[in-house]
Specification:
It contains 16 helices and 16 strands. With 461 residues, the chain is of the alpha+beta class. The chain folds into two domains: 156 residues, Creatine Amidinohydrolase, Chain A, domain 1 (3-Layer(aba) Sandwich), CATH 3.40.350.10; 293 residues, Creatine Amidinohydrolase (Alpha-Beta Complex). The strands form six sheets. It has a four-stranded mixed β-sheet. A three-stranded antiparallel β-sheet has the order 8-9-11. A three-stranded antiparallel β-sheet has the order 12-15-16. Strand 15 and strand 16 form a beta hairpin. Helix 8 packs antiparallel against helix 9 and helix 8 crosses helix 16. The relative contact order is 0.12. The structure holds glycine (GLY) and manganese (II) ion (2 copies). One manganese (II) ion (MN) binds next to loops. The site of one manganese (II) ion has 4 residues, from loops.
């Protein structure tokens, strides 16, 4: 069974994308979808996700398939499903039918691929079986997490140019992912007061995503330990006084993602200390979002948020000094060690399978400075880009209890004052912001982030 239908409008979008690629490269291109990985036997698999570069040009999450693109045309390579599939997985369309759905000019069994792609450029797929096959067929190393070489590098640059700014078809899908993600977060906020544990809130959120025939775009983070940045465990119970950080995003059947974080008090009322820090992060987020428009450097948006956080922490008596100087000395990064956000599209952290090739413009490399080293996007913004804006405040023991940090910043941080904020482990507020021709649109704006509205929503539950 195929998980989605390709309508005429999507078919036209796919044709346009192939034509756009043809304008940028004059060599043949072959893209693999990837295969599934067995958990314990071949029919019991980890959830399959087709490669995003493949999805971009085909729209269908086919398994163990490849496409050859040249001159704006698509040839599909796919084996017929074995006869036993009809019993276990239902009738599968023939490869000709699948090819017709996506507008292929020819279809071939996989065995034909070897003769037809020797001169083609490609991009490594993440699963080992597929990148091994890619390397064998193309007679060169094609490795994930390695910078592509020669024509593969030229192809990567061309695909980045296409995928950096979203076409109308993509934006429509991204809006759907945002809408469902907003609904999931509302459900989480409404569920928290009657939930005993993180798991129940996570279930309430993910059930909305599943009920809309979508899946999660990444492992949900629903935790009272928001200071653990990628905390995907969800076994803690909820205690009055806790803040719950929920970073959950939906993915449409075609693979388009949303990425939202909200942080809210489990009993519906922020403590005075939680309220004070929340307001600092919210103000930083608002200031950063307000800057988003074509031509603005994303690194400057990051810097604006850092300044707002530093100055808010000075006002609260946690930092001592002047915001510009504190940011220069990386003081903000003690509490906000990551970047202000990243690209969003077919993947959360869109195109980070290509390392920093997409996130960093020509001639730019990542800084090794604490506070900038996790900045994943450093380009001028362009209409059609979708970025997240996600400042945070975290009390990470590994950073703040480090004796070197304590002695280096013994004056610039008022450690006694900071100790009064012990009930704030982690706060992040994250929205998805589309760059428009003259400014921006927050695709996730329907989900409140203003503190009183967040409390009100939780209290309604
Ligand atoms: N959900 C992962 C992130 O916000 O980057
Ligand atoms: Mn994010
Ligand atoms: Mn997120």
């Amino acid at each position: 069974m195929l998980p989605l239908e390709i309508d005429n409008s999507l078919l036209e979008t796919l044709r346009q994308r192939r034509q756009n690629l043809h304008r940028l490269v004059d060599f043949p291109v072959v893209l693999w979808s990837g295969g599934s990985t067995a958990r314990n036997f071949p029919a019991n698999i980890f959830p399959f996700r087709a490669s995003s570069h493949f999805l971009y040009f085909t729209g269908l999450p086919l398994r163990n398939a490849a496409i050859r693109l040249q001159g704006g045309n698509l040839e599909l390579f796919l084996d017929e499903a074995p006869a036993s599939n009809a019993l276990w997985y239902g009738e599968t369309p023939s490869i000709e039918e699948i090819g017709a759905k996506i507008g292929a000019i020819a279809v071939y069994p996989m065995a034909e691929l070897a003769q037809r792609v020797t001169d083609a450029a490609t991009i490594a797929v993440q699963d080992a079986a597929t990148w091994t096959l890619q390397s064998q067929l193309l007679n060169r190393w094609v490795l994930p997490q390695q910078p592509p070489q020669d024509i593969d590098w030229q192809l990567a640059k061309a695909i980045i140019q296409l995928r950096l700014t979203h076409d109308t078809g993509a934006i429509a899908e991204l809006r759907k992912a945002s809408e469902v993600t907003v609904a999931a977060h509302r459900a989480g906020m409404l569920a928290v007061r009657s939930s005993q544990g993180e798991s129940q809130v996570r279930a309430a959120m993910e059930q909305v995503i599943m009920a809309h025939n979508m899946t999660t775009a990444y492992s949900s983070i629903v935790t009272v330990h928001g200071e653990v940045l990628h905390n995907d465990s969800y076994h803690h119970s909820l205690t009055p006084g806790n803040l719950l950080l929920a970073d959950v995003g939906a993915e449409t059947p075609g693979g388009w993602a949303a990425d939202i974080t909200r942080t809210f008090p489990v009993n519906g009322k922020f403590s005075p200390t939680q309220r004070a820090i929340y307001q600092v992060i919210w103000a930083a987020q608002q200031a950063a979002i307000a800057m988003v428009k074509p031509g603005i450097e994303y690194a400057d948006v990051h810097r604006e948020a850092c300044l707002a956080i530093a100055s808010g922490l000075v006002d609260l008596g946690i930092l001592r000094g002047e915001a510009e100087d504190l940011v220069h000395k990386n003081l903000h990064a003690l509490f906000f060690p990551h970047g202000i956000g990243h690209l969003l599209g077919l993947d959360v952290h869109d195109m980070e399978d290509l390392g920093d090739l997409a996130g960093y413009g020509e001639g730019r490399t990542r800084s090794d400075r604490f506070g900038l080293s996790y900045l994943r996007l450093n380009r001028p913004l362009e209409p059609g880009m979708l970025v997240t804006i996600e400042p945070g405040f975290y009390q990470v023991p590994a950073i703040l209890n480090d004796p070197k940090v304590r002695s280096q910043y013994q004056y610039l941080v008022n450690w006694e004052r900071l100790a009064e904020f012990a009930d704030v482990r982690g706060i992040r507020i994250e929205d998805d912001v589309l760059v428009t021709s003259n400014g921006h649109e927050v695709l996730t704006a329907a989900l409140p982030s203003q503190i009183d509205m967040v409390e009100e929503l939780v209290q309604q539950g």
